[in-house]
Design goal:
Helix content is 39%, strand content 22%. The chain contains eight helices and eleven strands.
Length: 235
């Protein structure tokens, strides 16, 4: 009667299992979102260049690597409104994941921007198979929901001056850093007026006031100081 011998520790069977574990790589969402490859491509846009238009097919999810992107909606009567300003680390155009057949807004580069396009089918696969990617997208969507709610309250109850101050702080990404000042990409006063929901002349007057009080600096580009927060917090 033959007797089978157990494989010794560190033998071929153990080595094969260890080799299998070594070969399995951990998915890194940031590395994926920073690179070009299968089912994804990176496109660079000039300031003012359209990334997609309202009514275009929803066939990809986009991710801002660098620069600023605005999302705007055009009504049937021809009235346009900016609904979001996006920066590095933001997803957009993900409506197709929920069954949207066409884009509900237009996306335009506010400053030079680098955008990663991920094929929608590839994104669906990643969300099912890679927890790191699904966690990152869910976190982004939750943060954007909170921002939309804050925008609504801001629009209903805040003055146009306070709304402008908050928009500038959002562009400077305060809350993500403890730095006291931050330079932001050049954004025209027309764009700011459209985003805030006021006139360009009022934005110009508020910007001059903010600069006089030392809240911003427009000497070389636009630098936003944390002290601008006092406008937002003032009742």
């Amino acid at each position: 009667m033959g007797v089978s011998k157990a494989a010794p520790p560190g033998g071929k069977r153990g080595a094969g299992r260890a080799s299998s574990q070594i070969q399995k790589k951990t998915f890194d969402a940031l590395t994926f979102l920073g690179s070009e490859g299968a089912a994804k491509r990176i496109v660079e846009y000039r300031r003012g260049q359209v990334i997609f238009r309202q009514g275009d097919p929803c066939d990809s999810v986009l991710y801002v690597q660098k620069g600023q992107v605005k999302l705007s909606v055009l009504s049937k009567t021809g009235k346009q409104a900016i609904v979001a300003m996006l920066g590095p680390g933001d997803f957009f155009g993900e409506g197709g994941l929920a069954g949207q057949p066409v884009r509900m807004a237009s996306a335009t580069a506010v400053a030079e921007a680098t955008v990663l396009f991920v094929d929608q089918n590839e994104m669906v696969r990643l969300l099912h198979e890679e927890n790191a990617m699904s966690d990152r997208l869910i976190s982004h969507l939750l943060m954007r929901t909170i921002r939309i709610e804050e925008d609504l309250v801001d629009q209903l109850f805040s003055s146009s001056e306070k709304r402008l101050a908050r928009k500038l702080l959002l562009l400077a990404q305060y809350g993500n850093s403890q730095r006291q000042l931050r330079a932001i990409p050049s954004v025209s006063q027309e764009t700011l007026a459209e985003w805030v929901g006021t006139t360009r002349s009022r934005v110009n007057a508020f910007m001059k006031k903010f600069e006089r009080l030392g809240f911003i600096d427009q000497t070389d580009g636009l630098t936003v100081h944390r002290s601008l927060m006092t406008v937002v917090l003032h009742d």
